[in-house]
């Protein structure tokens, strides 16, 4: 197993989407970022990441998220919030 820590910027989600779709788009952006950087197809996000994104509602997402990524066997990646 391999572990890494990534800081995922979410500023462009805030600037380029309407306020009622920011949190769902931020989750999609995190998945895409991890697929691109880990070269894995299956990305499993922990509940803590979802709670952090939705903490202040659908429109006020955090500007960046720090994530610890654990690459497991069989092309599977698990992501957990770092804090």
Automatic annotation (TrEMBL):
Keyword Ligase: no
GO terms of biological process kind: cytoplasmic translation
Keywords: Ribonucleoprotein, Ribosomal protein
SMART domains from the UniProt entry: Ribosomal_L31e
Coiled-coil boundaries: none
GO molecular function, one term: structural constituent of ribosome
UniProt cross-references to SUPFAM superfamilies, sorted A to Z: Ribosomal protein L31e (SSF54575)
PROSITE patterns linked to this entry: RIBOSOMAL_L31E
InterPro entries, alphabetized: Ribosomal_eL31, Ribosomal_eL31_CS, Ribosomal_eL31_dom_sf
GO cellular component terms given for this protein: cytosolic large ribosomal subunit
Keyword hit for Ribonucleoprotein: yes
Family: Belongs to the eukaryotic ribosomal protein eL31 family.
HAMAP family per UniProt: Ribosomal_eL31
Protein name: Large ribosomal subunit protein eL31
């Amino acid at each position: 197993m391999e572990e890494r820590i990534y800081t995922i910027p979410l500023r462009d989600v805030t600037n380029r989407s309407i306020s009622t779709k920011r949190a769902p788009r931020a989750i999609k952006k995190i998945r895409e970022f991890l697929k691109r950087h880990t070269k894995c197809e299956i990305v499993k996000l922990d509940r803590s990441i979802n709670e952090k994104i939705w903490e202040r509602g659908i429109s006020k997402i955090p500007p960046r998220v720090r994530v610890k990524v654990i690459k497991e066997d069989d092309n599977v990646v698990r992501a957990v919030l770092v804090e």
